[in-house]
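$ run holo --ligand "flavin-adenine dinucleotide" --emit tokens
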Amino acid sequence: MSLDVVRPSRQSNRPLRVSFEFFPPKTAEMETSLWHAIERLAPIGPSFVSVTYGAGGSTRERTHSTVSRIIRETNLKPAAHLTCVAATKDEVDDVVRAYWDVGVRHVVALRGDPVGGIGTTYAAHPGGYENSTALVAGLKRLGDFEISVSAYPEKHPESATLDDDIDVLKAKIDAGATRAITQFFFENDHYLRYVDRVRAAGIHIPIVPGIVPVENFRQTASFAKRAGAYVPQWLADRFDGLDDDATTRRLVAAAVAAEQVFDLLDRGVQDFHFYTMNKSELVFAICHLLGLKPQPAREAA
Ligand code: FAD
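-- output --
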């Protein structure tokens, strides 16, 4: 019997850095659970926490108020997501200025999904930023932001080839991006092969793997299909028979994600971005398995 599926703590002393992604809450109840998650995960000391921008710009105010509250009430460094969808350049620039004014200095700049949803054709808004490259350039004109962008180890569904995607990544970097965060993936070899191709194309910025804990396999698999992320059979097998057993699913999810991160660590990766879904339990457990524990709060000077 093999006991090394999840090791109790990591073997190497290489530094391990994490960042956490949240989405802005819709209701007072969701706000409470978001803040519970932030308070639980903050003491782990993430490099930054990011707050998404809803499809079609639907969370403009809520993203703003969430990052503002993070700045006011925590020591965390927030990154605000921003998309080009359904807005003129002036409207997007107003959002950017409002971010700057509350103290946001890191933006995750994205094109966004088509208004009709994933799978429909994307049309830039008349008078809007044409694509993510144009948005990155626009951000740089407005302030000295740190800019992260997306990367797709298994190809963006709208791209003809992976090389096209890598050309787009290059354009975003030339416009001012200094970090890429990947779409989630489950086959580490796909990510590592992608990084090799990106490096061969002369790109040297960090390509931070996006890690999604699979709390609900059916939901994740359905989203992965639309987003173009490959779901291996071994992953389906891990969750097979657990549709009605949320407790065991969570335990398995923590083990699977920790195992994925351990493997990447062994293969030289040091930074990891967790899609938290605003839930702290699983991500906290995964970080614990990785040896990341809450740090005592620093005394105010
Ligand atoms: P891009 O890199 O802009 O690529 C999109 C497509 O445009 C590709 O097919 C690309 O080939 C094509 N393209 C062609 N020419 C160019 C060019 N010159 N410049 C740029 N692209 C070109 N969505 C949200 O709505 N809100 C979020 O907060 C959000 N956060 C995300 C965070 C991460 C880490 C990731 C990986 C995705 C996120 N998304 C978010 C989803 C994202 O908006 C969608 O995947 C969207 O379809 C693509 O936008 P993009 O900026 O990721 O892709």
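-- notes --
The chain has ten helices and eight strands.
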